[in-house]
């Protein structure tokens, strides 16, 4: 547990699914922290100091030491505060959790994003197909578990918050069916469980402003066709 | 330590820097294993069975259970066999090792590859610049350490075997200067230390056939211009 003298801070952007991962992990652990909202159009000196390589959020700062990359931050948090483990204890289960988390970053996030926010029609279609194919793997993987982590939220659930909260927003904006109860019933049920889990619910940004923000982005993109 | 009844196997391709990472890790741990060379033009049933998601090498099999993704395999090996630790013991140092390993995959491997194996001249230039920028970060990071891991090889060194062995081959083929003693003296010295480290030396493929293989690939690509 963080002692009162500890410095724990998170640099994020409220609409970022990657910053949200870190918020969920900290909430699960019950760690208090200072949240610093960044403006990516005018990055703070702190962000440039703490993440000189990528200059991106999230950045996690613990007693003056900074870490970037959301999944790496989540593992650090899990190794630093032992309560409510996020990764399984067995090496093989840990490897699987890391595999599916990486899979979400490599195969789902980019494809789902480009399925909506791409002008080129063909590229949109290719990305929609890729996203669907990737979601099918996750539909098969969740099986009849409540969460990817089993009865409790684990690394894969945290990584997949993008699927549960952000995909429904962007698919509505782009008038696409990516995650629906018809196509992926198990994954859809899981997504409902996840967004209603207390640690997740309290970490998610409010839906309306995020929806409005992405809607404007989408309309600007469509206007540039 | 692996007992004699244990099944430890690696599905790889001799020219793959990713399979080589796993070989180095197993060598450092002194774990005996069965190596199965794959033909990616005609993938084995075993590969399709054990890596149905990506259908790629390396795949690591331990007592019937399979793991894919080279860095995830290396972490699994480190967690399963305790001798000669590959990751540092402190969470912050572990996070940094994971950060730089991911950086190599995200920023170095693809860019260096495309700097050579791309027909489009402009794309080649962009990728060359990106690769150089990424290597500069690593030049700054290695400082005066023998290895990224300090006195001993660690996760970042294993991830970076691509830089030490594969970049010199492909830059010669593409007539490019990426990793040279003039441009990146510290990284160059590190690369010499690394390829001559016994665990690495014994895990690397023979240079000549790899050079010949990539040379043919490069010439076929140039001919298709």
UniProtKB/TrEMBL annotation, chains A, B:
The keyword Ion transport does not apply. Gene3D superfamilies: 1.20.1050.10, Glutaredoxin. It comes from the Eukaryota. Residues 6-85 form the GST N-terminal domain. Belongs to the GST superfamily. The lineage of its organism: Eukaryota, Viridiplantae, Streptophyta, Embryophyta, Tracheophyta. It holds the Pfam family GST_C. GO terms for molecular function: glutathione transferase activity. Its EC number is 2.5.1.18. Keywords: Transferase. This is glutathione transferase. Coiled coil: none annotated. It catalyses: RX + glutathione = an S-substituted glutathione + a halide anion + H(+). Residues 90-214 form the GST C-terminal domain. It is an enzyme of class 2 (transferase).
């Amino acid at each position: 547990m963080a002692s009162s003298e500890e410095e724990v801070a998170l640099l994020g952007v409220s609409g970022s699914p990657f910053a949200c991962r870190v918020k969920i992990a900290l909430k699960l652990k019950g760690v208090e922290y200072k949240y610093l909202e960044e403006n990516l159009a005018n990055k703070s000196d702190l962000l440039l100091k703490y993440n000189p390589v990528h200059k991106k959020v999230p950045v996690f700062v613990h007693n003056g030491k900074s870490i970037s990359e959301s999944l790496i931050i989540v593992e650090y948090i899990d190794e630093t505060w032992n309560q409510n483990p996020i990764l399984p204890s067995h090496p093989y289960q840990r490897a699987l959790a890391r595999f599916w988390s990486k899979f979400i970053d490599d195969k789902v996030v980019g494809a789902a994003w480009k399925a909506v926010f791409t002008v080129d029609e063909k590229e949109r279609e290719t990305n929609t197909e890729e996203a669907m194919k990737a979601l099918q793997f996750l539909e098969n993987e969740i099986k009849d578990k409540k969460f990817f982590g089993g009865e409790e939220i684990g690394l894969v659930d945290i990584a997949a918050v993008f699927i549960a909260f952000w995909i429904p927003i962007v698919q509505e904006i782009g008038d696409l069916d990516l995650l629906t109860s018809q196509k992926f019933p198990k994954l859809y049920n899981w997504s409902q469980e996840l967004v209603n889990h207390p640690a997740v619910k309290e970490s998610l940004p409010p839906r309306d402003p995020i929806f409005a923000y992405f809607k404007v982005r989408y309309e600007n993109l469509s206007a540039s066709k």
